[in-house]
Amino acid sequence: MSTRFNRSGPSAAPTRASVDELENEIRHLKSALTGRAVIDQAKGVLMRHFGVDAETAFQVLVRWSSHTNHRVSALALEVNGAASQGADAVAVLVRDVHRRRGEDHQVSGP
């Protein structure tokens, strides 16, 4: 079945509601893509910092999110911001997140 609008009959033109719905969906998809890129970049930072693979780096973000009550995308932005300031800033952020989780700040692993 074609996804194009049927050009004949009473439903020849899309309704305002359907256009609004599609525009809203496009906005959400663009936002999701942007968020995914931020998360992927943060995974790379954590992969380098901890010496882990991509899946483990993502699980670190998810675990941090769960324990700190912050969205994964918000934590990813923090990681990326720290990375732009250098490896020491990433280490400080990791210690800070561990503190937020109520862990000993000397924890060196993910």
How would you characterize this protein structure?
The chain has one domain. Helices cover 69% and strands 0% of the residues. It is built from 4 helices and no strands. The protein is elongated. The model is unreliable at 104-108 (pLDDT under 50).
Strand content: under 5%
**Poorly predicted parts:** 104-108
Give the C-alpha Rg.
Answer: 21 Å
Q: Specify the biggest β-sheet.
A: none
Helix content: 55-70%
- Domains counted in the coordinates: how many? 1
Order of helices and strands: HHHH
Distance between the termini: 49 Å
Mean pLDDT: 82
Number of helices: 4
How many β-strand stretches?
0
Form type: elongated
Question: What structural class should be given to the helix and strand makeup?
Answer: mainly alpha
GO molecular function, one term: RNA binding
Protein name: ANTAR domain-containing protein
Domain ANTAR: 19-80
Pfam families: ANTAR
Quick structural gist:
The protein is an all-alpha fold and 110 residues long.
What is the secondary structure topology, with strand pairs?
Layout: H1 16-50, H2 54-68, H3 72-83, H4 87-100
Helix pairs in contact: 1-2, 1-3, 3-4
